[in-house]
Amino acid sequence: MRPTPAWDHRTMIKVERHTEHGDREAAMGGVYAPDDAVMVRRPLGEQLRSLAPSLLSQRAVHRFIGYMDAQRQRLTREGRRGRMPNRPELVARYGYDVKYASHALRLAYQGLEIARDGRLTLPMPEAERRRVLEVKRGGVPVMAEVLAEMDSVRRQIEDILGAGRTPLPPEPDWARISAWSTGAHREHWGWAAMPGQRSQAA
User: Fold this and answer.
1) Pfam families, from UniProt (predicted)?
2) Is 85 within 8 Å of 100 (Cβ atoms)?
3) CA distance 166 to 150
């Protein structure tokens, strides 16, 4: 896995913004990177990494599904979302854009792991990683097979959410995230904590 750079204030704001919307980027990069992939450690970054369990929620799962659906539609050139990177060399060689298909399949499997286990493993678990790479390298000659696999994973996610079998809460732990965010911004800018307010999240 590519080493993750040190966290700075701009990164902190970006993570907060994506977390608020449940975006997949909030669950990627430095927050869920393994320890040996973090090049530099800073207090704010370590605090944010400790918040990882509070960031994931069913909202994030729905966002993963939304991203996957959008990429699937672009892959099949359906509806208004038919625009996608132009890679005629891949289409000519494999019959479809295998790189784009692998990204959509990756989103599906990551959404499933979050819904089922309440966590995100980076790098991906080996079996899913091998499958995504197989698609990316043109090892699945028929696009319909990849699309069917995406649909199957999507149904698994919907079944887990619908049956209430996910360990995830409906929303992130906003109170804990807000407390950390307020303290972190004050610490970064050197502002004194307000009376009765801690400078860091508990």
Assistant:
1) RlaP
2) yes
3) 19
What are 19's two structure tokens?
A: 């977390």
Q: Are 108 and 156 in contact (CB under 8 A)?
A: no
Nearest to 151 by CA among 94, 96, 98, 112: 112
pTM reported for the whole predicted model: 0.77
Query: DSSP string spanning 21-64?
Result: HT-GGGGSTTTTS-GGGBS---HHHHHHHHTHHHH--HHHHHHH
Rounded Cα gap, residues 135 and 121, in angstroms:
20
Distance CA 163, CA 178 (A): 30
pLDDT per residue as tens digits for the range 57-66: 999 899 999 9
Please write the tens of the pLDDT for every residue from 106-121: 999 999 999 999 998 8
What is the number of other CB atoms lying within 10 angstroms of the CB of residue 140? 20
Strand-pairing partners, residue 38, are 4
